[in-house]
Fold this sequence. Notes:
Blueprint: E1 5-9, H1 13-27, E2 32-36, H2 39-52, E3 56-62, H3 70-80, E4 85-90, H4 95-104, E5 109-112, H5 118-121, H6 123-135, E6 145-148, H7 153-164, E7 170-173, H8 181-191, E8 199-201, E9 207-209, H9 213-219, E10 230-236, H10 240-251, E11 256-259, H11 286-299, E12 303-305, E13 310-316, E14 319-324, E15 329-337, E16 342-343, E17 359-361, H12 364-367, E18 375-379, H13 383-392, E19 398-403, H14 414-421, E20 426-430, E21 432-438, E22 445-450, E23 456-460, E24 463-466, E25 470-471, E26 521-523, H15 535-554
Parallel strand pairs: 1-2, 1-3, 3-4, 4-5, 6-7, 10-11, 10-15, 11-12, 15-26, 17-24, 18-19, 18-24, 19-20
Antiparallel strand pairs: 6-8, 8-9, 13-14, 14-15, 16-25, 21-22, 22-23
Flavin-adenine dinucleotide binds next to helix 10, helix 13 and helix 15.
Amino acid sequence: MAKPVLLTVDDDAxxxxxxxxxxxxxxxDRYRVLRAESGATALEALRGLKKRNDAxxxxxxxxxxxxxxxxxxxxxxxxxxxxxxxxLLTAYADTDAAIRAINDAKIHHYLLKPxxxxxxxxxxxxxxxxxxxxxSFRPPFxxxxxxxxxxxxxxxxxxxxxxxxxVPYRWLDVETAERDAEVRRLAEIVRAExxxxxxxxxxxxxSLANPSATQLAEKLGLRVRAEMAFHDLVIVGGGPxxxxxxxxxxxxxxxxxxxxxxxxxxxxxxxxxxxxxxGFPSGLSGADLARRAVxxxxxxxxxxxxxxxxxxxxxxxxxxIVKLADGSELGSKALLIATGVSYRKLDVPGxxxxxxxxxxxGSAMTExxxxxxxxxxxxxxxxxxxxxxxxxxxxxxRVVMLVRGGSLxxxxxQYLIEQIKRTPNIHVETGTRVAEVHGEGRLEAISIHxxxxxxxxxxxxxxxxVFIGAEPLTDWLGGVVERDQRGxxxxxxxxxxxxKRPQGWTLDRxxxxxxxxxxxxxxxxxxxxxxxxxxxxxxxxGSIAVQFIHQYLSAV
Length: 556
Ligand SMILES: Cc1cc2nc3c(=O)[nH]c(=O)nc-3n(C[C@H](O)[C@H](O)[C@H](O)COP(=O)(O)OP(=O)(O)OC[C@H]3O[C@@H](n4cnc5c(N)ncnc54)[C@H](O)[C@@H]3O)c2cc1C
């Protein structure tokens, strides 16, 4: 964090330099001393500091300045930094005005010019004030801040991106400006520069209005382009399966690049608590698992490109070539597809238009704080819905689970069912489904249909989290890689029909266990036909696949 600022303002250049010199001599190790030659310039500097979220501890301001007096400046500066100590620098003739200012303008102290020697006339008074300031000072948040509307899909996308890429950020909802002076001040500064929200403010003083994921990634130092155009192994998808393959591949000497569309961690990264992963008896969050795996992969030299999406694949002789969403291409000797599955959308009237405005898919972690003391509705009865319900129960007033089936037993692990039973603010409504969602600009109500009574009731709702199963998004592989009717990728023995190898297969061996119908293209994890759909199985498949990739490479 940057040191807190001491700001001195005086229109007399000589006096200003002298004050600055004396302040630096005594305080430079703990404070940043800044100077300005007029009230207007100083206010401009303060707005810049506010944008960066820097702390200001003290104003030391000359009273007699043209255009804006010291008292006038302090009146405006207080609005930006109400807790900074306020000191007027006055000539003897202005003593009366300075004393009046203590009463009328909330000045903490006044100092007479000249202040020599500073050890007697300057430092003791300022030391005292600064000690007082430090006693109640809480260091400001030292990271990006996002200013936006809670119900805006763009704001949601930015927050989700930061959270999933594990960038700590502070969320400032403009709708709280009336009751939160800090938000109001920042909103005023931002509005003078742009009308677009959300705005992301960085600690270097720069900001981005309504940034795309790529702009954010570049600003935050995430890599979206590869250093080389050709690798030994390209992995598409950064969930547990892709990350495991990346760690094993790179640790065994393969030049490996991993492409991830959203954020490393995949579905597991959205899990608030994974309790059945071996070696973590009290569970661990998906974000924690992802953070550890990414660090491990980077340590072995894996290049991670995110956000970056694979949109097509083709084969050119021994090369497997992936086309990326930005139009560039990456070639490799072997390609591993670990693209998992994506949440199925709620197919009811009104749901599409309210996505990100109260209707969310798998975003429990990002939104939980915003739902404090509200009622939250969760659609789904599988483990992902159960975990989300448990997570929300810590924040929300009431969590209502809308489950289509007659009980949770058929779709949820027993340990989660027990936890839900023991949590008084979770209500499970079985035999129900969402029939419609309503709202202008944000979710306001949902219609719930009860199978037993045949009745549909409309209830007020601000947040609806949907966990209704998932499907593989593999259309981009069409025509090259064989898939089943639902889009899952066929591998190994699933490709064999009546003992015959897949069409177009040229090698004198059967496809390896995780290999697709194209030699050298492999598929692991949830995207694979017949996969188990667990973190541990994804990790296992990703690791095993590397052994088969070595065997493939040794023969080409
Ligand atoms: C909320 C929740 C809780 C869960 N809890 C548990 C649990 O407690 N225990 C357990 O064992 N399992 C749990 N699971 C299941 C587990 O997370 C998955 O089985 C596992 O993540 C699958 O890993 P994967 O790597 O195959 O795919 P995914 O995790 O789905 O990762 C695939 C990745 O590929 C990326 N991708 C997709 N298409 C492209 C493309 N074209 N280009 C670039 N990137 C792409 C995606 O963005 C994603 O990050 C949970 C799942 C959810 C959603």
